[in-house]
Design brief:
The protein is mainly α and about 240 residues long. The chain is built from 9 helices and 2 strands.
């Protein structure tokens, strides 16, 4: 199971390479933003399932989409590295507004009266009818953690003059992931479920993704900067 989990994480992370190739080819962040928005929206829709993750040192429980959502921090760092903090914040804002729209559309679909011959209303409600408290928790955690990751990454890049990519990748994503997990679980489940085990499980799983994503961060930068100056794409910091 652990080996399969590593392969899943690598597969999901590999989609960032497509975004970086597009950015190099066209000099734009469109594809990276599109992938980022898609990951965020899917994570909100499919967050209903809690999965068991066998991480060798123990079994941890977290939303199944944690291996998808965690890669958003890699995408944030890639865009930040190549296009600067301003573009990263723009991407986060687009993703946030997209999540609000999807929540509204989901609510409309759920409350519409089903046809007499439609017998899957319960399944639709389970998939799309998220509890308002969970939706609020997702929005708050997303905005705080993603912006924190972006600001810390940009600050480290400035202080290290563009060196030590692995350090700014880790030192921005790791605390941001912890804050994301803490805010989401506390707001969504405090008083309903034991929050500490859930925070530990989801954070450790996210950190595993972050560790695996470090080589992908270097691969993405290599694709973008190969044969070019490291200032070639940055439009604003």
């Amino acid at each position: 199971m652990f080996t399969l989990l590593l392969l899943w994480i690598a597969l999901v992370s590999s989609f960032t390479i497509l975004g970086s190739w597009y950015a190099r080819r066209f000099g734009r962040s469109d594809m990276l933003i599109g992938i980022y928005v898609a990951f965020g929206i899917f994570s909100n829709i499919a967050a209903a399932k809690t999965a068991a993750f066998d991480l060798v040192v123990g079994t941890f429980y977290a939303p199944a989409v944690v291996i998808v959502f965690s890669v958003t921090f890699l995408l944030t760092d890639v865009v930040n590295e190549m296009f600067g903090l301003h573009e990263t914040r723009r991407m986060i804002s687009i993703a946030f507004l997209s999540q609000i729209m999807i929540s509204l559309f989901s609510w409309i679909v759920v409350v519409l009266p089903p046809a007499p011959f439609f017998h899957q209303q319960d399944a639709i409600e389970m998939l799309l009818g998220q509890v308002p408290r969970i939706v609020l928790a997702s929005w708050v955690a997303f905005m705080v953690s993603e912006n924190l990751d972006a600001v810390v990454f940009a600050w480290f890049k400035s202080k290290t003059k563009g060196r030590h990519l692995w350090a700014r990748n880790a030192l921005s994503s790791i605390p941001a992931m912890l804050i994301d997990s803490t805010l989401f679980i506390t707001i969504a489940f405090y008083g309903v479920m034991p929050v500490i085990p859930l925070i530990i499980g989801i954070t450790i799983t996210k950190w595993l993704v972050a560790l695996i994503d470090v080589p992908f961060m270097y691969l993405n930068r290599w694709i973008l900067y190969r044969g070019r100056s490291t200032d070639a794409f940055i439009t604003s910091s």
